[in-house]
Amino acid sequence: MSVARTFHVPNRLGAVMRRPGGIRASEAIERAETGVEQFREECLKTIGEVMVELDARFGPNAEREGADFEALYTLVLKLIDVSGFVSHTGLDRAAISMCTLVDTMSERGRWRWPAVDVHLDAMRLLWTQGETLSEGEREAVIEGLYKVSKHKPASE
Amino acid sequence: MSLASALQSATRIQLDQASVLVLDDNGQSLDILCQVVYGFGVRNVHRAESVEQAKEHVASQTLDLILSDVQMPEPDGYDFVHWLRREAKEPNRFAPVILITGHTRQSQVLKARDSGATFTVAKPLTPKVLLERIIWIAREDRMFIECDTYMGPDRRFKFEGPPPGTEGRRHDDLPPEVGDAFGANLSQDEINSFMKPAKVSI
C-alpha cells in the first residue's frame, strides 16, 4: 500500500470571497439567469438540428448497418450541453437516459434498436409537447426510459 | 455545512477579484458557462476550448477556480485535472476544480473518482447549483491527499468513522461503536462555563 501524504492547502477562493463588498447570492443568480437568456434562441436551434440529425442517422429509416456507438453518444451529449433551456420539458433527462443506453450497448458491443427507437420517440414527444404534458405524464415517460436504458436483456 | 445551507438568499458573494478558468470544447456551452460566471460578478474569466489552451492559462495566470467540461476529445476533463494536480506549478496545482459532465460512462467512473476534482456536477447546469458549489468550496477546509494513485482534495466528505467492522486507516479514526461513559457527569456550572467564556489574566 502506498504512503499517503496529507496536507493543508490555503483556500484562495475563500480568501477572495471574504473581501468586503459583493452582491447577494440571489442577485448573482438572477444576473446569471438573465445573462444566459441571450443564448436561448441559438441553443433551441441547435437542439432542433440535433433532433433532426438523430432521426436521420439513427432513426428507423436510417442505414443502421455499421452504426457507430460513439457517434450517437457524442451527438446526444451535444444536445445535453445546451439543454438547460428545455429542462422543464424533460428532454434533458431523456437524453441522459439515451447516453446510458448507448454506453451499455457499447460495453456489450450490441445494438438494441427497439430501445433506441423508444428513446428517439420519447425525445421527439418531449421536444414537441413536453411543455404541455402534465408533470405526471412527463415523469412516467422518463421513468419508462430509465427502465429501458438500464434493462439487461435475459439473453446477456 | 451542507450544500443546501451553503446558499441562502442573504448570503453575499464577492467574486470580482477572482480569477476563473472555464474549459469546454463546445463553444455554445462555453459561452453559457462564461456568462453564468460573469453574472456572479467575476471579471477575470479565462476561456479555453481545449485542454491545450487551458494548460496555457494555467501556466500564465494565477487561478482561484477552474470549471471544466468532462467530455472532450482526448485529453478530456479528467486528464486535465490529473495533469493539473501532478504537473502544474503551485498554487494552481491546488486550485479547486468543478467538473461538469453530461453523462458519466461506466468505464469512466473510477477515472472520475480518481481525477482529483473538487466537485463533479451534472449538466444541464443551473446558476443556482453552480453558485452553491462555489460557496461550499470557498468555505470548506478539506485536506489534500497525495499518494501514488491519487492527488486531490480528501474525497471523504463526511466524518462518520470507518465502515462498520473495520478499524479505519487514519491514525485519528475512532471506532463506530460508542463506548461506556467514564468519570462523573459534568455539573451544570461546568456546562455553563463552556457557553460563557470568562476573561482571564495571564
Could you describe the 3D structure shown?
- The complex is a heterodimer of chains A (156) and B (202).
- Chain A has helices at residues 12-17, 25-36, 40-58, 69-81, 91-108, 113-129, 135-150, and strands at 5-7, 23-24.
- Helix content of chain A is 65%, strand content 3%.
- Chain A starts with a strand and ends in a 6-residue tail after the last helix.
- Chain B is an alpha/beta fold and 202 residues long.
- In chain B, strands 3-2-4-5-6 form a 5-stranded parallel beta sheet, sandwiched between helices.
- The chains are: A mainly alpha (156), B alpha/beta (202).
- Chains A and B meet through strand 1, helix 1, strand 2, helix 2 and helix 3 of A and strand 1, helix 2, helix 6 and strand 7 of B.
- Strand 2 (23-24) of chain A pairs antiparallel with strand 1 of chain B, so a sheet runs across the interface.
Key features of this structure:
heterodimer; A: 156 residues; mainly alpha; Four Helix Bundle (Hemerythrin (Met), subunit A); 65% helix; extended; B: 202 residues; alpha/beta; Rossmann fold; five-stranded parallel sheet; two-stranded antiparallel sheet
SSE layout:
The complex is a heterodimer of chains A (156) and B (202).
Chain A: E1 5-7, H1 12-17, E2 23-24, H2 25-36, H3 40-58, H4 69-81, H5 91-108, H6 113-129, H7 135-150
Helix pairs in contact in A: 3-4, 3-6, 4-5, 5-6, 5-7, 6-7
Chain B: H1 3-6, E1 12-13, E2 19-23, H2 27-39, E3 44-48, H3 51-60, E4 65-69, H4 77-87, E5 97-101, H5 109-113, E6 119-122, H6 127-139, E7 144-146, E8 151-153, H7 188-195
Parallel strand pairs in B: 2-3, 2-4, 4-5, 5-6
Antiparallel strand pairs in B: 7-8
